[in-house]
Each structure stands twice: as C-alpha cells, then as structure tokens.
Amino acid sequence: MTLAAISLFPQGYVSSRVLGIETELAIGLHPWERHPERPNRLRVDVEMFVPLDAVGRGIVDYDPVRALVRGWRGRPHVEFLETLAEELLAECFRDPRVAAARVAITKTQIFPEAAGAGIEVFRPRPA
C-alpha cells in the first residue's frame, strides 16, 4: 500500500479490482510497434479504492472498465500507454464513491528477455 492510500483512507477502504484483462492494440513509439498487422499484447490491471463508509451504498461495478479495455482492440495507433491509463482513470472516477484508483498497463511481448514493460499510475480523485 502506498503512503497516499494510507493518508486518503485512515478509516480503511475496499479495493474493487479487475486484473489481467488482455487485449491487443497498435501502440508504442518504436518503429517495430508501428505495424498495424502486429499489435502489441497488453495486460491491464485496475483497482478502485472506496472508503469503507461508502461501501454500504452498493458495489463498485468494474464492468465499464472491462468494456473500455475490450473496446481498444482495432482502434487507431496510440503512441503512449499513459493515454490509455488516463482513459481508464476517467472511467474509474465516474463512480463518485471511488476515492482513488490504480491502473497498470503492461506490454507483455515487447522484449524477449522480459515478462513485460509498462506503466502504473496511482491517483486520488481529482479535486
């Protein structure tokens, strides 16, 4: 747990998450990533943090997050993983109970010697 999460939720929180969503997408800056016939394979993990006192008002639905990721397949080339992360974070914060969210996006086949390369963003709800 990050220090930001501790200070945001001194009373505790529930993490609603969907992990390991897989999709393929033309993404990246490298020349070898710019071939639409060879999209990058992505793994996406999303966590939405809800204060314990807000949990009683129903579940946090992660289906919209899943639908967003599934909708990426076949879209025009994207240069930055951060673009996708921002889209996911915006979707997470559509639920007013979500006080913070964590998004991790990994290119799983980018380097032969690595299990993956990617980004992770943790963000509290914008003011």
CATH superfamily: GTP cyclohydrolase I, C-terminal domain/NADPH-dependent 7-cyano-7-deazaguanine reductase, N-terminal domain
CATH architecture annotation name? 2-Layer Sandwich
The third-level CATH topology is GTP Cyclohydrolase I, domain 2
Shape: elongated
- Written as H for each helix and E for each strand, in order along the chain, the element string is HEEHHHEE
On the 0 to 100 scale, the average pLDDT is: 88
- Tell me what portion of residues adopts beta-strand conformation: 25-35%
Number of domains: 1
Q: How many DSSP H or I helices? A: 4
Question: What is the CATH class?
Answer: Alpha Beta
Alpha-carbon distance between the two ends: 22 Å
Poorly predicted runs = 1-6
| Strand line-up of the largest beta sheet | 1-2-3-4
The radius of gyration is 16 Å
Features:
127 residues, alpha+beta, GTP Cyclohydrolase I, domain 2, 4-stranded antiparallel beta sheet, 4 helices, 24% helix
Please give a structural write-up.
With 127 residues, this protein is an alpha+beta fold. The protein has helices at residues 3-8, 52-55, 63-70, 81-92; strands at 13-25, 40-51, 100-107, 117-124. The protein has a single domain (3-124), classed as GTP cyclohydrolase I, C-terminal domain/NADPH-dependent 7-cyano-7-deazaguanine reductase, N-terminal domain (GTP Cyclohydrolase I, domain 2). Helix 3 packs antiparallel against helix 4. The longest helix is centred in the last third of the chain and has 12 residues, at 81-92. The radius of gyration is 16 Å and the shape is elongated.
